[in-house]
Amino acid sequence: MEIPEQYMEMIITYGERLVFALLIFFIGRLIIKYINRLVRRITERKEVDSTLRSFLTSIVSVLLNILLFLTIASTLGIQMTSFIAILGAAGLAVGLALQGSLSNFAGGVLILLFRPFNVGDFIDAQGIMGTVTDIKILYTSLNSLDNKRVVIPNGNLANNTITNFSVNPMRRVDLVFGISYSDSIERAKEVIQQVIDSNELIEKEPAPTVGVIEHADSSINFTVRVWCRREHFLTVLFRMNEEVKHAFDQAGITIPFPQRDVHMYTHTS
Fold this sequence. Notes:
Radius of gyration: 34 Å
Shape: elongated
Number of helices: 7
Low-confidence stretches: none
CATH topology of the largest domain: Helix Hairpins
Largest sheet: 5 strands, antiparallel
CATH architecture of the largest domain: Orthogonal Bundle
């Protein structure tokens, strides 16, 4: 049975396109693998963070595969105008359905690029304090002070305030101590200063500050500000509170507490 001439021409035409498409596919895959390896080598040489390195490699791979797919479709004779329109409509629908995830994705990109914190940093974000354990594309994981795993969407992190306690090597410890109105201010300042001088974890520079901050209802309050290495923050905080109490007791200085006088009246008829 003889094949009609028009069909033969069609078979030859589409056969050639199919062969070219297959060649483009295999060559394109080799080029994509080479570019991925090149991106990975460059990021490793530049000592880019492993999380960001993986993210960049995956993004480059996705974009190159999309380009390869469009090239193959064009080679096969598919009308790209209508095809791109369909892709755009589908992308819009998916974008609306995944709006929250896209926001988290964008937040993850910003965090990975600008690095407001790193894995191992102690931060305060969204009212939660903890140590960063993972930075993913869509979310960041923290271990809270009571060892709970907290997962925060990156969109929230990128659009809100983050306090990073691990960036600066020094931290200031702020304390308040109250004494009775009948006690000597000069003597109390001297006792507090002695406690500060005896604590080897407190830095000499910046110099500690001791001063009266308030005449409260039942006490005169001192504000005490001392500096220490960030890893000693809690130790200095706890020691200062304990040692100042002991020093006040030995010096006969009273730490007052709120009191209320109640007067009883008896009415006689």
